[in-house]
Design a protein that fits this description.
It is built from ten helices and eight strands. With about 250 residues, it is α/β, with parallel strands linked by helices.
Length: about 250
């Protein structure tokens, strides 16, 4: 029997990771975070200091990638790399290296191997167009770069406050304001918003303009602008589409 696949593609910070995880949990399906594979490859190449011009070495690294997913953790070369691969520098390197056809070809089967009963939710850029062209349901999740940057900047602010950032607290006190958590979060968010938006636009451009497997909705994908919906609403809408799709395949 062919494994049912739901593909969820979209640009950076579109919320597809969260939505894909929730859909997989709701249906008890496996989850493929294909971006983590490209990030792990980039991280391995960066730490081995492989030049981005050495196509043969970059390809060999992709073929030999020692990668293991343990729940939500990503292990690379026997070390927990979950946090390391999430940096923007690694994301940008992954975006650059993923434009190399030999690297994509070497990582293709590794992604397809995730398809197993009872089903798979595949999150990425080319899940519906290249990796799983026969996916039963294809979703393309997106919204404007500004909204995505706002979300990402909010996450950065939370991380910095959790890590005990004090600079912004000092700036607030200097302005005669009390350093409340909300004030701190808002100050940091406003500071990083511009840079985050520039990075997002750069990565969008790189992912969309590459010659091989560019980021774009599959011709049969359903496009959802998730700025207009809460995560709960988006998850509910995709589950509804899935059950309708299943019913129509079973009837035909
Ligand atoms: O989804 P992400 O930000 O973790 O992905 C990092 C980069 O990896 C992304 O900018 C482009 C590349 N990528 C890709 O080319 N194809 C995929 N299916 C997933 C990610």
């Amino acid at each position: 029997m062919i494994t049912p696949v739901i593909s969820i593609d979209g640009p950076v910070a579109s919320g597809k990771g969260t939505i894909a995880r929730r859909i997989a949990e709701a249906l008890n399906f496996g989850l493929l975070d294909s971006g983590a594979i490209y990030r792990a490859h980039a991280q391995a190449c960066l730490s081995r200091k492989i030049s981005f011009n050495e196509i043969n070495l970059l390809e060999a690294e992709a073929k030999a990638l020692s990668l293991k997913f343990v729940g939500e953790a990503v292990w690379l070369d026997g070390v927990d790399a979950t946090v390391a691969i999430r940096s923007e520098a690694v994301g940008m390197a992954a975006s650059t290296l993923s434009a190399i056809p030999q690297v994509r070809a070497a990582l293709l089967q590794r992604q397809r191997d995730f398809a197993a009963a009872p089903g798979l939710v595949a999150d990425g850029r080319d899940m519906g167009t290249v990796v799983f062209p026969d996916a039963l349901l294809k979703i393309y999740l997106t919204t404007t770069a500004e909204v995505r940057a706002g979300r990402r900047a909010g996450q950065v602010a939370k991380l910095r406050v959790a890590a005990g950032e004090t600079m912004s607290a000092k700036q607030l006190i200097d302005k005669g304001k009390s350093p409340t958590i909300t004030g701190l979060l808002e100050t940091i968010r406003a500071q990083v918003q511009h840079d985050v938006e520039v990075q997002i636009r750069r990565r969008d451009w790189q992912d969309k303009s590459r010659k091989i497997a560019p980021l774009k909705p599959a011709i049969d994908a359903i496009v959802i602008d998730n700025a207009a919906h809460s995560p709960d609403e988006t998850v509910a809408a995709i589950l509804k589409l899935w059950h309708l799709r299943l019913a129509s395949t079973q009837a035909s």
